[in-house]
Design a protein that fits this description.
Shape: globular
Strand content: 25-35%
Radius of gyration: 21 Å
Oligomer: single chain
Largest sheet: 9 strands, mixed
Helix content: 25-40%
Distance between the termini: 39 Å
Strand order of the largest sheet: 2-1-11-10-12-13-14-15-16
Number of helices: 13
Number of strands: 22
Length: 424
């Protein structure tokens, strides 16, 4: 038995009074976060959401996200995170493709009317029975009206803060992550409870996250990078996650100073922006530098000048890693206890096998160091497959190896480098 929600529950048992989430003035302890997720789980259960059902979640980096994420898992259902920029047509496609029976969406803002987009898509997806809107004021009426539409406040109202988590099997699907798909329609990668739990633990151990850490969540939690490397890895460690819904260098630096952030994870554009931010001296950089201990980068290779510039300014090592939605996502990382190599995605993480092979060679024989080939991966993080797409799955998983579509090479010490995409 294994349910990904146990990451949160075990930390709530071990450190109930420890801060789990910070969002500006809102602070939730582990006991409060787990209690809120339990209330929502009870509410979802009452609405008829069952083990194996799919529930969509469209929410920026706000406390509603972890509450809803773990509540969905607790009832034994599968979380289907949506990009908050989806328009009605995209919402409809993803609801239908994933067979979602319910959707939880933040109300949004005038600039980004998430609930309205969710409602537009919900109306076109007859299989989706409920749209639950997270309103800023829990007593407010939903901003959209229709059959099956309610609010998070109403669903949670009067529900007890205890819930007996459904005991799922390790190989049941916990999360379906949609890949933007360079070719054809987006496909949903089915990630199991074991995939996600082991990837969070492997990340925790690689980065050395512990209960004293404060991790800045600025990467969207609806993406695998933010979800695993920040949220799940932090909660499995009893650490604190501080939320920033939209990246701006001044907002990120302000939170780093205010909350004593120790872990930052971002993509190269964020590192560029923070390194070159002209008004950085209005912050207490000495304080930020004193608490920040590790930075993580992924999504694309960091140019050497950014690594050098950022590390000089903030006094922390940047660990570059690599992965895909299909690998939960982390497959390789640079390690704190080994030399880091600029431009390298490091070495395979714990219990993970990576090779550079000739894309046409079905024996998957590793190519010698320096020779360019396709990056293939096998290990605990490999998805079950694409949801309801056996042909697409068979195309990328061959003889137990996942074909990444990325071209790379290794050096003499087994460090991996990405060189190019096999097919755009």
């Amino acid at each position: 038995m294994l349910n990904l929600a146990m990451l949160l529950e075990s930390s709530a048992k071990a450190h109930p009074g420890h801060l789990a989430v910070i969002f500006n003035d809102t602070k939730l302890t582990y006991a409060q976060l787990n209690g809120a997720a339990n209330q929502l789980a009870n509410g979802l259960h009452k609405l008829g959401v069952q083990r194996g059902d799919k529930v969509a979640l469209s929410c920026p980096n706000l406390p509603y996200f972890p509450i809803a994420y773990y509540a969905i898992l607790k009832v034994g259902a599968t979380v289907v995170p949506f990009n908050v920029l989806f328009k009605g047509r995209e919402v409809a496609y993803h609801l239908k493709d994933s067979d979602a029976v319910a959707m939880i969406a933040f109300q949004g803002t005038p600039e980004l009317p998430i609930a309205q987009m969710a409602f537009d898509g919900y109306q076109q997806a007859p299989g989706c029975r409920n749209l639950i809107v997270a309103t800023v004021d829990p007593t407010a009426a939903p901003p959209v009206e229709g059959e099956g539409v309610t609010t998070l406040g109403r669903v949670m109202a009067g529900q007890p803060p205890v819930f007996d988590t459904v005991q799922t099997m390790p190989d049941e699907t916990a999360v379906i992550l949609y890949t933007s798909g360079t070719t054809g329609s987006p496909k949903g990668a089915e990630l199991t409870h074991a995939n996600m739990a082991m990837n969070a633990v492997a990340t925790r151990d690689t980065v050395g996250i512990n209960g004293e850490d404060v991790a800045l969540a600025v990467l969207p939690l609806f993406h695998s990078f933010g979800q695993t490397v920040i949220m799940n890895a932090a909660f499995t460690s009893g650490a604190t996650m501080t939320l920033l819904p939209r990246f701006m260098p001044d907002a990120a630096l302000g939170i780093m100073q205010r909350d004593g952030v120790t872990i930052f994870a971002g993509v190269p554009t964020m590192y560029w922006a923070m390194m070159g931010y002209p008004d950085a001296d209005k912050f207490d950089l000495a304080k930020i530098v004193a608490t920040l201990r590790v930075a993580v980068s992924g999504g694309a290779a960091l140019p050497l000048e950014v690594i050098k510039g950022f590390e000089a300014k903030f006094g922390v090592p940047i660990l570059e890693g690599y992965g895909l939605s299909e690998t939960s996502p982390v497959a390789s990382f640079n390690h704190l206890d080994r030399p880091r190599k600029a431009g390298s995605i490091g070495q395979p993480i714990w219990l993970t096998d990576m090779r550079i092979v000739d894309p046409m060679d079905e024996s998957h024989t590793p190519l010698p160091a320096g020779q360019v080939g396709e990056v293939v991966i096998r290990g605990h993080q490999l998805m079950r497959g694409y949801y309801k797409k056996p042909e697409a799955t068979a195309e990328v998983i061959r003889s137990d190896w996942f074909h990444s579509g990325d071209m790379g090479k290794t050096d003499e010490e087994g460090y991996f480098y990405i060189v190019d995409r096999l097919k755009e």
